[in-house]
Amino acid sequence: MTATIFGIRHHGPGSARSLRSALKTLQPDIVLIEGPPEANDLIACAESKEMKPPVALLVYDPENLQQAAYYPFAVYSPEWQAIQYALAAKIPVRFIDLPVGMRGELERSNSGADPLDWLSKAAGFGEGERYWEYLVEQRRNSSDLFAAILEAMTALRQELANEHDDNYDLIREAYMRQCLRQAESEGFQKSAVVCGAWHSPALVQPWPTPQDDAGKLKSLTKTKIQATWVPWTYGRLSTASGYGAGVESPGWYHHLWTHQTNVVIRWLTNVARLLRQEDIDASSASVIEAVRLAEALSAMRESPLPGLAELNEAVQTVLCFGDTAPMQLIHQRLIINDRLGQVPSDTPQVPLQQDLEKLIKKLRLKQEPIAKALELDLRNANDLDRSKLLHRLELLGIPWGTIQRTSSKGTFKEGWSICWQPEFAVKLIEAGVWGNSIEAAATAFAQQTALDAQDLPSLTGLLDRVLLASLGEAIPLLMLQLQAIAAITSDTLHFMNALPALANILRYGDVRQTDTSSVAIVVDGLITRLCIGLPHSCQSLDDDAAAEIFEAIQQTNGTIKLLQNPDQIDNWRQVLLQIANQSSIHGLVQGRCCRLLFDDGSLDTEATSKRLSLALSIGTEPTAGAAWAEGFLRGSGLLLLHSDGIWQVLDAWVAGLSQDSFVAVLPLLRRTFATFSSPERQQMGDKVARVPATIQYVTADTPNFNADQAHQALPIIAQLLGLTS
Amino acid sequence: MPPKTKAKTTAENPIEAKLAETVSTLRQNAEIQFAQELAELAQADQRQRPPNWQLSPWAVATYLLGGKLDNGFEVSPKYIGSRRLMEIAIATLATDRALLLYGVPGTAKSWVSEHLTAAVTGDSTLLIQGTAGTSEEAIRYGWNYALLLSAGPSMAAVVPSPMMNGMNDGKIVRVEELTRIPADVQDTLITVLSEKTLPIPEIGVAVQAQKGFNVIATANNRDKGVNELSSALKRRFNTVILPVPDSADEEVSIVHKRVESMGRALELPIEVPALEEIRRVVTIFRELRAGVTSDGKTKLKSPTGTMSTAEAISVVNSGMALAAHFGDGTLQAVDLAASIQGAVLKDPVQDAVVWKEYLETVVKGREGWQDIYRACRELL
To answer: Is the pTM of this model over 0.90?
Structure first.
């Protein structure tokens, strides 16, 4: 048998194109690809019309779902093209890498440096990828390319023999050779072997003896492994996503793959179209200039065709006027690209589906397409787990259950209406990219959402959902993100609204495994920032905004009291005092601050009544005065009745008014008192009538007592008291 | 920039003549000061040169960024920073597009433009200084009114602008502070840049630009609002934004060097402060400018001011002056606090919030920074 070795780079369009034409010339009778043999049965699926890359082979241990490996394929992956070629030519195609099930305890290579970096450095390029791109991926004619790669790699491996040959790679290569021998013994004549460039020298004959290779593989035990196809995204194919064999610019490679001619012009036109979509001017004349600059740059750098670096520089200089902000958009939308793959509906189930089924069985739920009410008692462990599951699914975009109002009081009851819709199955497959169990997937998804979040309200909303779904592991990252966003938020209201949920975690620790120290840092930062920003944001408010701030202050006050941190309380008091003292702040807010300070004991009765009379005095605009009184008293009808402190403040103030001024402020007071319920007002009246505490008794023994004048008053008093008829 | 000397010389080589003439000048033009480097480069340069260029793009890049020639001659770097940016600027000129150097004050825009011009055309003196009072004549042409009145409009009566000279000779013309020029005057450039002609309707002729003619303009990021370029004009420039120094070390050494030389010029009776003190100032400036702490862990709000390296230099300088004349002779946190605050608080309301937050969330907790924290808190 003759085996032709094709050393490729995973996900390289140039490699893929060269490989395809090389295969056409070679006409092999079998194609062998570096990939997990457990997935051999699944290769045929790649022919399906519904299969649209980017997709990934997911290889996993059904016993231990966290043990899983992904093998992503883009349309321009050489492996994918090799599979397509073999399926179209109706010849066998097999994966020949060391089975994932045998890798168990093997130590992975951890040498860090990419062997390509050595070649690249030798050639005077910076990092490896650019060199390879220049040499291989941008190449348009491909004769002898693979022979050259093989030669370079052979030389490289000889040079680096000691540094780089780690055991893991050697065992994999032994297994690959065994597969080649197997194919030979089956009588295939001409095989094409597609593997990473680094492995190519090891697969060229002469090989070590079969006994040698078998010896290397002897000690390995095999576990049972399952495989399936899952849809993939270009985002997760990029190096930025943490995928080891990833590429920096999947979208650019896609472009290189799909367009044979006018690559530069088409790319820049796409950029211009994207910019126009986003309402940034990008004229055709500018595109022309960008093409010229890109070409001049590549000429200056002595490369035959502008690469992505030159194109980006040209775009930034000509189309974006030097600005970097649109470049991020271009990076996200074109260079990375948000293309999502698709797999046929009859692909085997993904672990996520299996996990869901397991959970459904365990929690005794039923997937029915008819809406059904479900009432959960969260004190019951099974019901609590059901609630968590529903919340987690909802987070993943699978709203199996929707929350309903429950009639009963108390927080332990939760009402759901559950209804399983068939499209959830598809969504579940899509959610497979996030993880292999519902919990892991929801956690990963929440973390990604947190990273994408732009403002505090969306983050705190997410935090609420994460808490409900009980995803403790997502909390630390959420905290980091909250901290980062809080730093650039200037809306104090956002801080104040974010605070209660966080304070609850900190105070009651109601989430498992939550690292409360990270929460404490965030809370501390939020309080510091809101204390600095609050006085400023209380200025020049209209009535609606003031009402909002009023609520927020009220809420924050409660939260800060709850946290019981003396520094924060002290800081908060200072801020309240500052607001209470500042002029030109809406009365509602100011009145409430004063009230909170009074409740707190920071202002005594005398000081408070002084402020009350100041706020309601003649010099103040009547509406402002009324707002102040409302801020001071809103919602305290019952409190007025039962707490003597505030009652005395009011009483002292009213008693100190002269008759004229009493008449003047009466309408203002009325406005506030009218908001109390009528039984409350009734009782207040009674209290006024009853309480004699502040009345000065005058008796006949008092000096200067004028008996005559007193007698003159008696008939009227008798009449008032109904003593005469 | 000294005005172009009009004195007639008999020497064959104009550069040598100029050399002889300008020994006592305070600051020499780039092409005079680095005449030897340019000559060596021209000799070593075997690559293709665009029409009317003195050097090839490669050699221009080497001149700007420094390097060693094959014959062992060392070219000193003129611009310390990104190589790619300089390559973009040179490639722009090679495609006969006008170049706009954009950036906050103190990022070497004029410096780069002067050296680029010197390297490409060997003459950096065709300069139009943009001010609010720059008139159309400064960009197009003026008249010799005596001749105009006596003999009527003719080419002899036209007083050419640097722009017209540049077009005639196929040289690069520099426009400094483009955004300070009134908008209607700016627009004069549109025809020049797109059609490469300068019509003189009074005589009915037009000056056609020779190959090699181009324009390098510099403008200040922060002055966007003053006279923002019309989109028609903007479109005719390739824009390169010159960034503030990349690494803290680079910036610290720039500040240190400048402070040292300025301190000497001002004859301050004080030692140049230790690098540590400068590093603190530079750290504050970099963190506020970037909106993130130097360890990359905490995001910050940025103040409205530029927080440029130039301002960091002046903060250290005025701190030194304070310490020398009113303090104990060594630079203390107290001496720095007032001028740092002055640099940050450009907008009394917004910036105060930013500054307070920075003090409370970053400076307060940082080890060894207590003195700065206290000094700044006292001033607030």
So the answer is: no
A118 alpha carbon, distance to own chain's centre: 38
Contact A403, A411 (CB under 8 A): no
pLDDT band at B7 (very low <50, low <70, confident <90, very high): very low
Q: Which pLDDT value is given to residue B10? A: 44
- Residues A359, A409, single domain; the answer is yes
**Cβ of residue B24 closer than 8 Å to a chain A Cβ:** no
Q: Which residues, 6+ apart, have CB-to-CB distance to A1 below 8 Å?
A: A183, A184, A188, A189, A190, A191
Asked, for residue A283, whether it belongs to a domain, the answer is yes
Return the number of CB contacts < 8 Å for A and B.
Answer: 87
Which of A281, A322, A532 shows the shortest C-beta gap to B239? A322
Q: How many domains does chain A have?
A: 3
Q: Is residue A476 part of a domain?
A: no
Q: In this structure, is residue A500 part of a structural domain?
A: no
Helices A516-537 + A566-581 axis angle, to 10: 10
Question: How far A114 CA sits from the closest chain B CA (Å)?
Answer: 25
Residues A297 and A149 in one domain: no
Position B247 confidence tier, pLDDT thresholds 50, 70, 90: confident
Query: Is the predicted pLDDT of residue B11 greater than 50, yes or no?
Result: no
Domain check: are A79 and A136 in the same one? yes
Q: Which tokens belong to A692?
A: 């004699």
Exposed (0-12), middle (13-18) or buried (19+): which is A697, by Cβ within 10 Å? exposed
Residue pair A408/A372 in contact by the 8 Å Cβ criterion: no
Chain B residues whose CB is inside 8 A of the A289 CB are 95, 97, 238
Residue-wise over B26-46: b if at least 16 C-beta within 10 A, else e? eeebbbbebbebbebbbebbe
Q: How far apart are CA A381 and CA A389, in angstroms?
A: 12
Q: Comparing A687 with B215, which gets the higher pLDDT? A: B215
CB A43 within 8 A of CB A88: no
Q: Tokens representing A63? A: 């016993």
- Asked whether residue A9 falls in the same domain as residue A80, the answer is yes
Residues A214 and A176 in one domain: yes
Asked whether A19 and A6 are in contact (CB, 8 A), the reply is yes
**How much of chain B exceeds pLDDT 90, in percent?**
31
The highest-confidence range among A367-371, B40-44, B315-319, by mean pLDDT, is: B40-44
Contact residues on chain B for A528, CB-CB shorter than 8 A: 357, 360-361
Q: Domain boundary residue among A241, A272, A295?
A: A241
Q: Which residue has tokens 């309707």?
A: B201
Whether A110 is in a domain gets the answer yes
Average pLDDT over all residues of chain A: 81
Which amino acid is it at A442? A
Question: Do A375 and A324 fall within a single domain?
Answer: no
Edge-to-edge strand order for the sheet containing A2-8?
Answer: A2-8, A190-196, A30-33, A93-95
**How would residue A697 be classed by pLDDT, with cut points 50, 70 and 90?**
low
Token pair belonging to A296: 């001049």
User: What one-character DSSP code corresponds to residue A238?
Assistant: B
Q: Which residues from A are below 8 Å from B when comparing CB atoms?
A: 281, 283, 285-286, 289, 292-293, 296-297, 299-301, 309, 313, 317-318, 320-324, 483-485, 487-488, 490, 525, 528-529, 532-533, 536
Which domain-ending residue is among A439, A464, A486?
A439
pLDDT at B264: 65
* Pair (A104, A212) in one structural domain: yes
> Which tens digit of pLDDT belongs to each residue from A122-131?
766 655 566 7
In a shared domain, residues A41 and A150: yes
Separation CA A355–CA A392 (nearest Å): 13
Confidence band, pLDDT 50/70/90 cuts, at residue B6: very low
Let me know: does A718 contact A724? Beta carbons within 8 Å: yes
A146: containing domain: 2-241
